[in-house]
Amino acid sequence: MSNVVSVKRFKQFPQLMWILLFGSFITRGSYYMVWPFLAVILYEKFALSATNVGLILSSAAVISVFVSFVGSALSDRIGRHQLMYASGVLYIISFSLLAQVDSITGYALVITLCSIATALWRPLTSALIGDIIDDKTTRELAMQSLYFVVNVGCAVGPMLGLWMGLTGEQSSFYITAGAFAFLLALLWCGFHQHNKLANENELTANQELTKLTADNREIDSVDIQCQAKVKAKSAEGNQIINVLVADKLLQCLIFANILCMFIYAQMDSSLIQYLTRAEVPDLLQLISSMIFTNALVIISTQFLLLKLMANLSLVSRIQIGLVLLMCSQIWLAVNPLTLFWGWIGAIVVMSLAETILFPTMNVHIDRLAPDHLRGAYFGAASFYEFGYAIAPLGGGIILDQLGGPWLFFITAALTLIVMYLYSTLDKMPRPDFTNVLAVQKRLSE
User: Fold this and answer.
1) Cα–Cα nearest to 120, from 374, 388, 360, 382
2) What pLDDT does residue 411 have?
3) What is the spatial distance between Cα 315 and Cα 312, in angstroms, rounded to a whole number?
4) Band of residue 239 on the pLDDT scale cut at 50, 70, 90
5) Where is coiled-coil annotated (predicted)?
6) What letter does residue 426 receive in the DSSP assignment?
7) Separation between Cα atoms, residue 74 and residue 91, nearest integer Å
8) How many CA atoms lie within 13 A of 411 on its CB side?
9) Quick one: what percent of the chain has pLDDT higher than 90?
10) pLDDT of residue 322
11) Residue 105 predicted with pLDDT over 60
């Protein structure tokens, strides 16, 4: 019975959602074919220390976090479509440049552009799903599906790159640029078709409204116009900030997830630097295998875990994921450098944690966000990326000063702090969104 329901839910996806899923697969696959090896390229080309590599990656990511918040909030006012086109073009330009630069300064600038494009794209995609799918259950399935296909791309990309001999090759960044050019063409078609269908539905609704009685027609027309204005007019900038400042639960959640992202991001940056500098055997094969394992575990367990945890609250699911994340960090700390399958085993545990945590975080924000502030809330959630942003620098400093084992013991301890913060969420005050929407309605009149 549950399988039938799932099939019905999938059939409710609009065409634009399927385009997003396919586009996410090809772009993530090409992205992870080349991006994880950037730290290796910087080390081998310029012999930079772990701290210096971390500084380049962290500086770019910090800038992108601020851009992401502003861009996502603006998307409530000027539309998702335009900003998605802009971030897609920025992807194409930045990855094309990344295939050509040959100086440390050039890498720093272009990596910043890449990070900005990525930070804009992710929350816009999540907010767009909320715009095009009204049913809550179907929307959550769509977010889970998006996360699933992203990881299918992550699984295929590194292994395909290794098979094609592209890992560590600078020219392979052109592949990612080409993938985003193709996605933009698909999105243009999808947006055009979606808008056409929306206009047809609106016309049908208007025709039905004309059948109302003469006494009710004028009143209903005024109400409908007011509702349209409220929906079309997004909250003013100051009002958005006031709401976010008043929402203490959101702030606690953001801080907890900043720490969570800092912990998880060590796999993408510091772990690779640790293995590179330790000169472990078969380095490129090990890196590709870890990325492949990470994605494969997510692909094979995501919907199974979703079904097993269906009766648990979102916070309970996240706490289970955090326990697994802490165990993976301890494993990474104690694993011998030359034990290939030990590294893979630790990644399996970390991947199970990620499978539970990451899609649940998006669903959590979607449930917390009022409809008229969805873009602003997903933009605020992009501050999670601060953890990801400072991870290369923080991890690099710890690597240079204390070494790899201490880095992962520290991240294991940080997981305990995240678990405590999640346990306090229910006690955090939230603003009165009814009053906020009433103010917007008065403004629109």
Assistant:
1) 382
2) 94
3) 8
4) low
5) none
6) G
7) 19
8) 35
9) 11
10) 93
11) yes
**Encoding tokens for residue 298?**
């997510």
Q: How many helices (H) and strands (E) does the chain have?
A: 19, 0
Do the Cβ atoms of 258 and 384 come closer than 8 Å?
A: yes
CA 301 – CA 298 distance, rounded (Å):
5
DSSP string for residues in 219-275: HHHHHHHHHHHHHHSPPPHHHHHHHHHH-HHHHHHHHHHHHHHHHHHTTTTHHHHHH
Pull the structure tokens for residue 76. Answer: 């409530």
Place of tokens 């104690």: 334
pLDDT in tens, 29-65: 766 666 666 767 777 777 777 788 778 877 877 777 7
Q: Decide if 374 contacts 245 (C-beta within 8 A).
A: no
Rg of the Cα atoms in the chain = 23
Burial call 396-426: b when 16+ CB within 10 Å, e when fewer:
bbbbeeeebeebbbbbbebbeebbebbeebe
Summarised one tens digit per residue, pLDDT across range 397-423 is 898 888 889 999 999 999 999 999 888
The answer to whether 129 and 139 have CB atoms below 8 angstroms apart is yes
Report the 10 Å Cβ neighbour count for 204. 10
Which run of H or of E encompasses 152? helix 136-164
Q: Which of 109-123, 210-224, 380-394 has the lowest mean pLDDT?
A: 210-224
Distant-in-sequence, close-in-space partners of 138: CB < 8 Å, separation ≥ 6: 9, 12, 13
Residue closest to 81 by CA, chosen among 121, 118, 23 = 121
Residue listed under structure tokens 């450098």 = 337
How far is 87 from 67, CA to CA, in rounded Å?
11
| Cα–Cα separations (whole angstroms), residue 231 to 76, 203, 408, 420, 438 | 10, 18, 47, 38, 12
Q: Tokens in use for 84?
A: 């998605």
